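RETRY 2/3 - previous attempt timed out on the joint model. Re-submitting the same 834-residue input unchanged.
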Amino acid sequence: MGKRVLIAEDEPNIVTSLEFLMGQIGCEFQTAVNGEDALRAATDFRPDLMLLDIMLPLKSGFEVCQTVRANPALKDIKIIMLTAKGRETEVAKGLALGADAYITKPFATRELLDTVKRLLGG
Amino acid sequence: MPRARFLAVWFACFALLAGAAAGVLFAVHAALAPEQQLQFAQLLAAGGNILFVFGVILFVASGFLASGLTRSFLAPMRKLAESTRLIAAGNPAWRAEAEGPSEIRELALAVNALAERHETLTGGVAERIRQAHADLGDETNRLAALMSELASGVVVCTIEGRILLYNEHARQMFSAAGVPGFIGLGRSLFSLLDRHLVVHALDQLRYRLAQGDARPVSVFLASPGPSLLVRVRMAPVMGTASVDGRPLDPSGFLLLMDDVGGEVALYEQRDQLLEQLIQSARATLASIRMAAENLESFPQMGPDRQAQFAAIISAEAHRLTAHLERATREHSDLVRSLWSPEQMRAVDLVAIARRRIQEHLGLSTGTGELDESLWVNADSYSMAQALCFVVRRVADELAGRDVRFHVTASGRHARIDVEWAGNPAPGASAMAWETAPLISGGEASPLTLREVLGRHHAEAWCESDARIAGGRFRLLLPVTEPVRAFHTPAQPSRPEYYDFDLFSQPGPARDLDDRKLTELAYTAFDTETTGLEPAAGDEIISIGAVRMLNGRLLAAETFDRLVDPQRPISPASAKIHGISPAMLAGQPTLDKVLPAFHQFCEDTVLVGHNAAFDMRFLQLKEAATGVRFTQTVLDTLLLSAVLHRDLGEHQLEAIAGRFAVSVTGRHTALGDAMVTGEIFLRMIPLLAERGIVTLRQAREASQKTLHARIRY
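RETRY 2/3 succeeded.
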């Protein structure tokens, strides 16, 4: 596919699977393990898409999302939020802050891949 | 007129006349010379027959004389005496009838003149008493208002567990289906709450008082009925008498009760949810773990086996996921309906916040769209503080102006928006607000916005909006259904829910017979029936009763039930009581109603009008229902005969008229029971005048009256 994906996630086991899957669909990827790293990578790595966990150390996924959206230079980055809580209010907040999609853990591999492909294909 | 008295007068007359005749004969005899005396005796002996006839005529004549005497003198005198007593102690508006000879008529007029003055005087006294009552009433009404406004049930008891006060909320709580006992003044609390539970809590209070705790409270859960779970907080009521510096013993206790049935059921549901989730997680994880470890430990296994284990892992993971999803959904529904002390409309929450903002920040804010149908569970204080805090940051940091509030629905959430013209919040500052302590108007709260939101299961964020050239703070609060609340109807007059006189009463005595009539608890009752012949199969169709205590009729403590007689009602009786067969369809049968009535009148003396009639019906059912009414029964018909032998009729209306009791709802069981009760209370002082003070005396006097032919 040749697209760039930033994986912002602090759980190594999920990261392993996510990296494997991104590799499988032919994406170039980088991993950030906290909110600060994720923001830095957003500017440096210039991903096409972010897989953004909400419960990140240092800065929450909400903050990262809001900061990225506040930066016009980064406005084309697609953001998929990942959360373990799955509360309706959280989903509403994530989408309001500019996330393009929202996936609750645990999720089906197929669901994730379909969403990634849909956002990158557009 | 009693026969014995009439006979006595008759014989007295006869004795008088016969004595007079004998006296004349003797005087004549004494005045004669000795030989004439002999002739006189011979004369008398010869005319013995004439003498006997004369005697008979004398006897009959004295009968007429006695009858005339009693009719024209004694009866009017006695009537006048009864009237005078009635005026003095019962009904000042009563007037004696002027009848009999002119002297008695004059006496009656004089009594009436005195009654006139007496009525005027007592009227004045009654007016002053009424005024004093009104003043006192203000106080007690304030107390009653306070009690009725409380969202909790309140019951105050003596140390023995007799109820002195309760509020409407407590009444409704214990009127719920399945609660076996009745709440009522002077009744025992232990028919409503488990005695051991109450005694244990009381012991704890005593212990803590002895430890020097000045305001001890003990808390326990009680289940008075199958569908009722109550959290009870108990505090002691201290006596006024101080005992040489030692800690006082409580003279009573106060119970504050909240229905927590719903709440506890939700917690139980939540525990169950967790339990199921853990079980399911253990089972699936066991499968996954075993399959994964097999794959890891035996890499040499064939590809078929590998695929099999991988499929297990995948399937089990799916199963766990599905369960988790379901549990999450159910949990969020549970949390949504968990009882909260303050349930309010979202618009009211906004109104509170706006007032606070006006007071603390001096900022007036506006409103836009306000959806009034949204209810939320909110701690209005901390939430208003949070909104005030946000508006202050908006004003200080973002130069926000024209702050407006909107309340709209968003799925299962209420959306409270704070919009302003000015700079929208930059991402970083909005997030910093969440973790800073809430400070507004000089009041620092230990809570942060994030914590307040967390407690409410809410989320909030800032966003910009080009249309308003400014920013928006958006708050999502889960909506709730308004919780079930005990319906408290407006009371036109404050009912008698308290009686502190009970504090000074002796405990319930086994033997009521020697207790004074003034200090007993009574149940005035009446029944309506299909006809007059219980032996011929007539049945009770309605029982009405009201309690009386300390000389008061407790109009709020009534028993009023219709009964399905399971047989047709005769048109003649339907005309009297106005109960149609349609009204009785679906009503409980007597074997259900009678035990409830039995409990209602437990430990009281029964009072009925022509109670023998009602008792016959009740006693005929003893075998069938297993309910026996063994208490003493007083009959206002008999008592009226004791008091007013000569004032004529002893029908309920006639007696009510004599005692100036207004009759409403005649020929409904409850209406007649009320009238009977009022009459009975007015009879007590009149009975006392005749020396009838105790229950035993009232019982014995009733039995002695002419009407007392039927023994209970």
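Residues 151 and 485 of chain B are 9 Å apart (CA to CA). Closing ticket.
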